[in-house]
TrEMBL record:
Signal peptide: none annotated. GO terms for cellular component: cytosol. One of its GO terms (biological process) is regulation of translation. This is Integration host factor subunit alpha. Keywords: DNA recombination, DNA-binding, Transcription, Transcription regulation, Translation regulation. Heterodimer of an alpha and a beta chain. GO terms for molecular function: DNA binding; structural constituent of chromatin. It comes from Swaminathania salitolerans. Belongs to the bacterial histone-like protein family. Coiled coil: none annotated. It holds the Pfam family Bac_DNA_binding. This protein is one of the two subunits of integration host factor, a specific DNA-binding protein that functions in genetic recombination as well as in transcriptional and translational control.
């Protein structure tokens, strides 16, 4: 398993777009900050051809400690949900993306 780091993304932006490394880092950080900001506000973030990030609220529930069997309350919380686009799903599965429309094509 390989992890994609911010430094690798910055380097890719630098080599593909032609911005300086510093400008590439600033660009990446501003995009990530915008995504995080929207998610914090409870908005859905769609990246066409990639997927959709959203925040879902999970209610209070009762869980069970698997070791002791004792019931434990699980407090309400927010969870981040990612739904990949059909295009991303097809590419990951090695399938053809031909004929799959991006969300911008559907408008």
């Amino acid at each position: 398993m390989t992890t994609v780091t911010r430094a690798q993304l910055v380097e890719h932006i630098y080599s593909q777009v032609g911005l300086s490394r510093h400008e590439s880092a600033d660009l990446l950080e501003s995009v990530l900050e915008m995504i995080v900001s929207r998610l914090e506000q409870g908005e859905t973030v769609k990246l066409s051809g990639f997927g959709t990030f959203s925040v879902r609220q999970k209610g209070r529930r009762v869980g069970r400690n698997p070791k002791t069997g004792i019931e434990v309350p699980i407090l309400p919380r927010s969870v981040l949900v990612f739904r990949p686009s059909q295009i991303l799903r097809a590419e990951v599965n090695g399938e053809s993306t031909e004929g799959l429309a991006t969300e911008s094509d559907e408008s």
